[in-house]
Fold this sequence. Notes:
It contains 8 helices and 12 strands.
Amino acid sequence: MWETAGDSAGVPVVRRLTGPDESAIKERLHGDRGFGLFVACNLLSYGFSSGVCYWGQYRSPADALPEAILMIVGGSANIYASSAVDITPLTRVALSEPLRFIMGREDLMTPIEAVAGKHIRRVEAHHFADLPAQRFTRQLAHSPADALVRRGRTQDIDGLARLYFGAPGFEDLSLGQIRNVMLDRVTHLRTCLVERDDAIIAAASTSAESYTAAMIGGVWTTPTARGRGYGTAVVATLCAELLRERIKPYLFFLINNGPAEHMYMKIGFRVIGNWKVIYFGK
Length: 282
């Protein structure tokens, strides 16, 4: 169903995407393994199940490919376009939903900031980075002398939930909610952790994976254990595992986070663009 009239040339139209549109979505995402990763991953994992919905913005009803895609999963949303596009029509659809946050390439988030105004709680500006295999500093993927870096298991869920409780990105979640997030990442994605004296002191996970790319997130070291290389070791170990499978790692990090930038650049990541996350509500 078309949400916006498209009788005049050049007037964008928006409609809900369904199963027959899958090939068009994939064609729009083709060649962009990074910025399109969240849409690609959810399409691969969940398709058009009841928990995920997709909207496409078209230049006219006659167009076969959407120029921009809005994906909504629960209270989160992601907007994707392969180039600079005026996504005002998609913005109206997104803001009609009870979202906790929406994220996307920096240029695509500008109209949302302009329209949402007072409903925005905070805006996070990030660098977006990838790790080409030839840049990877492989010698960093090892266990420190006083700790063990290993793959997370289901019996680690409670320890991981305690590690992330109150951490950035998890601050609005209860211990039980964090536990559910980590259960999903350990069982359906992948998590690496650092264990010292039977306690989990650092971890990193993939938050999205396709056959060729993965987004790394949840990079966190408990404050009392920082400055000893644990974060570097766990991220490098996770990257080594992905690259062995010919999966390219991506991540984004706050622009003003100097320590994180230093760590990621040391591992071999390079900044390829900017990313924004806009949070709504109280």
